[in-house]
Amino acid sequence: MDPDPGATALARETDPAGARAPAPAAPASAPGGPVEREIVLSLYEKRREIYPRARVGERLGRFQRWRWVMVWLTQIAFYGTPWLPWHGRQAVLFDLAARKFYFFDLVLWPQDVIYLTGLLVVSALGLFLFTAVGGRLWCGYACPQTVYTEIFLWIERQIEGDRARRMALDRQAMSGSKFARKAAKHGAWAAVGLWTGITFVGYFTPIGELAGAALQASLGPWETFWILFYGFATYGNAGWLREQVCLYMCPYARFQSAMFDRDTLIVTYDQERGEPRGVGRKSRTRAEVGLGDCIDCGFCVQVCPTGIDIRRGLQYECIGCAACIDACDHVMRTNGLPIGLVRYTTSHALAQHLGRAQILRRVLRPRVLVYGAILGAVCAAMALALALRVPLKVDVIRDRGTFARELGDGAVENVYRLQIMNTSAAPATYRIRAEGLAGLAVASEDQIAVPATATQVVILRLRAPAAGTPVRANRIELTVQSTGDPAVQVRERTVFFGLRP
Description:
four-stranded antiparallel beta sheet; five-stranded antiparallel beta sheet; alpha+beta
């Protein structure tokens, strides 16, 4: 480890007898006495720079191709979704100022927070299920940290060159050429980070307005802050921190072992087949000299984005990207050896030499069935709740100034304040009815037009004959029903007060 003057410790070594000088004033004591040396130990290890190799061979391996497919799919969805128009507005918009979340035809209000809770539960259970079956698939293929690190590494390779050239460039003293390459790389990273920040904020502020304000340099303070914050986070995490986010900041790496078992598919090195390692011999002579299939080329380490050696066994630093599988398979083919020395398999399969069919049969084990059952139940409950969701919400508040008043014709009148929320993406007209007392009727306007995704506050006056209205608080029921769709209706209970004689 490199010495760190800010965090060091002194360790003293004595002779085998364990003798120790009381206060060493010199590097060594008298001849024949105990020898003491001061050794500086660093409590913190300096980060070792990792230069991941793009690929081994001329073509990308099958898992590397899948990883780039996921990069394209996730980024097309992320950057493109805010620009989708839908009924004259943005298709996906989380309008915090208006407290409305638009998702195509679905409009969610603060009262619909239960759906957000359900979405978080589904995401967590889905992660548990996929991890129990296939290990860290999310980390290796779809995690934003993995995706953006892959994008930033691609930019770095286009500007600075392949792995060997990047390592040589970093060893060189600063020069005009090196400064130009570094500035171009960081400029491209900053541009991607800034556009990512604008896109992220575009989910909360209409992105057309946001982009126009950005071009005119007229962004508001909050938009500016969050664009710079998210852009800097992208630039720092994907450009500088990289694997450190996975190793030290992400909690998933720490508790993943709780979801693994011996039948979880993980990236594994077949030690029985690969050891002992050796170089330079083809398959037909390696067994004769007692060598395994691993030629100790080190390519599996060079392509790893976290810099680990998969041959040391399962490590929490492994994100399951399978880059080492592609590298090893290429080396095996080149040397005339069977592929699969590093592969997706399970601990049981390695120990018991199970085939693919036997591995697949072990997928439906109790842990997976429990995760799947709970996930299916939650998804079904959410789907049913959304299907039965009534796009109308009504709040009834009595007039606190007067419980009841007598009119000139002898009738009793109560006044209410109705807040009608049309949560659908289309305008609607609602009819108001009152039931629960003989002769009870709506004295104010009984039809209310409410625009799409809007709230309308109306004053409702109810009348009833004084003779048939008891003095007590009489329970009544208000019905607000859509004129266009009778199935859309809400019933609210309240009270109607009579007058004392």
